[in-house]
Every structure is written in structure tokens, then in C-alpha cells.
């Protein structure tokens, strides 16, 4: 169970005008602008749910995932995930969660994928027999046997993403945070990733929070949608409720979303 209450996070960004004079000026007097990345964010997610966490660029999606993973400490608010506060009980918390940031890698770049997996096994202290069993299952489900001996830097994006997802699940977490897991993937890889997420959710009741700009991911996977804009939760409901917001019969999910962005001016 994930319980998030009144999370807020503000970033201070250094600013200066272009040009040499302004560079010198800013060396002596720094000017900052504040960005409220999260503004009083609250939601509760029961075990086994797949939530689509959507919103425009810069809305606060990754910041939320970072707070929930314990990477970022909020300015205020609380978060309890299976009884742990992510940024306080980090060691206990990371055993419960898997995280994939589509734009970053958790695999070591120059070594074969299987070696990265063994390093993660040691980091998470996964017993040998559990590791072998999980590795076999994940390799089968994600079709990894051909790529395990390849260094990460030589993998295609789709191959790497399948390895990233496997890496996040080697310690059998109950909760999976996926930040843009299908970004840049071709149709075959997208479908493979979506099928896999559906499968682990059905088989192991894994709770999934998924951020994506691909509304087909949402349609295929999410039973619930949370819309965030300018750091504020604007909508929280079922996929059916989201679809019911269409203005014309032929509106796609993207068009419903664009209408909402316009309505909320985000
Ligand atoms: N480390 C940081 N320092 C300063 N500002 C940041 C930092 N991380 C995020 N921000 C700002 O916080 C806001 C929310 O960013 P965030 O990455 O959470 O958005 P997002 O919804 O994930 O966007 P996208 O869809 O583009 O990935 C943005 O305005 C961003 O510039």
C-alpha cells in the first residue's frame, strides 16, 4: 500500500541573462528562481493496482517517482510505502521496490548484462537459489538469453529496456516504478514490455506506477489514471472515467488529454 499525503517540493534554479557582463555579475550576485515541482500531492494506491501517472513535460511525474523511490527528499508531506518512509528507511524500502528510469540506466555500461545482474544480486543480498530461479523466469519472459553476455553499451534500446526491467525485478519487489519505460521503443519492443507488465501484475500482484506520454501504454495497462500538471494532482479516476471525458465520439485518448491540458492550462 502506498499512502502519499501533501507532498511538496520546490527547486531553486540559478538564473542569469546571456553575455559576458552578466556572467561576471552573476559570479558576485547569484539570482535564483523557484520552481514548485510538487504542490500538495496526495494519493493512495492499494496493492496490485497499475496506475498511469500522466501529465505534460515538467509536470512533476519524475519528481514524484524520485520521492517515492527515496532518491529525493520532499520539503513537506508524508509518504508511507509498506510501512516505510522512502527517504528515511532507505535500506528496508529499496528491498520492496523496483525502479526503471527509461532515460537512464541502472546497468554497468561496459560489462556484460549478466555481470550487472550478479552485482545487483549482491547489492540486494538475493540468495543464490532465489536469484537463479528469478533469472531463469525473467530471461524466459523477456527473451533475454541472447543478450545476457553482451555489454550494455552494445544493446539496442529495446534490448536494453528489457534488461533494465529484468534488473529492477531480480530482488522480487512488490512495487515497480516505471518512468517512461517505452520511450523510443519500436512496436515489437513496446508490446513485449506491455505484455510483461500485465503478466507480472497478474501473476505476482505487483503494484505498478507507470509514467508515460504514450497513451497506448495507458490504455493497455492502467486501470487507474492520475493526472498531474504544474505539480498539482488534477484528476484521479478509473480509465473508464477518463474515457468518458471525451468531447466527440471519435476522440482518441491523446485528444482527451490535450483537452484536459487546455482546460487546466498546464
Ligand atoms: N534537480 C532539479 N533541479 C531543478 N529543477 C528541477 C530538478 N528536477 C526537476 N526540476 C524541475 O521540476 C519540474 C518537474 O520536473 P519533472 O522532471 O518531475 O517533470 P516530468 O513530469 O517528469 O517531466 P517530463 O515529462 O518532461 O519528463 C520541472 O519544472 C523541472 O524543470
TrEMBL record:
It holds the Pfam family ABC_tran. GO terms for molecular function: ATP binding; ATP hydrolysis activity. PROSITE patterns: ABC_TRANSPORTER_2. Keywords: ATP-binding, Nucleotide-binding, Transport. The keyword ATP-binding applies. Transmembrane segments: none annotated. This is ABC transporter ATP-binding protein. SUPFAM superfamilies: P-loop containing nucleoside triphosphate hydrolases. SMART domains: AAA (SM00382). Residues 18-255 form the ABC transporter domain. InterPro entries: AAA+_ATPase, ABC_transporter-like_ATP-bd, ABC_transporter_ATP-binding, P-loop_NTPase.
Amino acid at each position: 500500500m502506498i499512502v502519499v499525503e501533501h507532498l511538496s517540493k520546490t527547486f531553486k534554479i540559478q538564473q542569469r541573462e546571456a553575455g559576458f557582463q552578466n556572467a561576471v555579475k552573476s559570479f558576485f550576485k547569484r539570482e535564483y528562481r523557484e520552481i514548485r515541482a510538487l504542490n500538495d500531492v496526495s494519493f493512495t494506491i492499494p496493492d496490485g493496482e497499475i496506475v498511469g501517472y500522466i501529465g505534460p513535460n515538467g509536470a512533476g511525474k519524475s519528481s514524484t517517482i524520485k520521492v517515492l523511490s527515496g532518491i529525493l527528499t520532499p520539503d513537506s508531506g508524508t509518504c508511507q510505502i509498506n510501512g516505510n518512509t522512502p527517504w528515511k528507511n532507505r535500506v528496508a524500502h529499496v528491498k520492496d521496490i523496483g525502479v526503471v528510469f527509461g532515460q537512464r540506466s541502472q546497468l554497468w555500461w561496459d560489462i556484460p548484462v549478466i555481470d550487472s545482474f550478479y552485482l545487483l544480486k549482491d547489492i540486494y543480498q538475493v540468495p543464490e537459489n532465489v536469484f537463479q530461479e528469478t533469472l531463469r523466469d525473467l530471461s524466459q519472459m523477456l527473451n533475454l538469453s541472447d543478450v545476457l553476455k553482451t555489454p550494455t553499451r552494445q544493446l539496442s534500446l529495446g534490448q536494453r529496456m528489457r534488461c533494465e526491467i529484468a534488473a529492477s525485478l531480480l530482488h522480487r519487489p512488490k512495487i515497480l516504478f516505471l518512468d517512461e519505460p517505452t520511450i523510443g521503443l519500436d512496436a515489437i519492443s513496446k508490446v513485449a514490455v506491455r505484455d510483461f507488465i500485465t503478466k507480472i501484475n497478474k501473476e505476482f500482484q505487483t503494484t505498478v506506477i507507470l509514467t508515460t506520454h504514450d497513451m497506448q501504454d495507458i490504455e493497455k495497462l492502467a486501470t487507474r489514471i492520475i493526472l498531474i500538471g504544474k505539480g498539482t494532482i488534477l484528476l484521479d479516476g478509473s480509465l473508464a472515467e477518463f474515457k468518458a471525458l471525451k468531447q466527440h465520439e471519435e476522440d482518441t485518448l491523446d485528444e482527451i488529454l490535450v483537452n484536459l491540458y487546455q482546460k487546466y492550462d498546464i
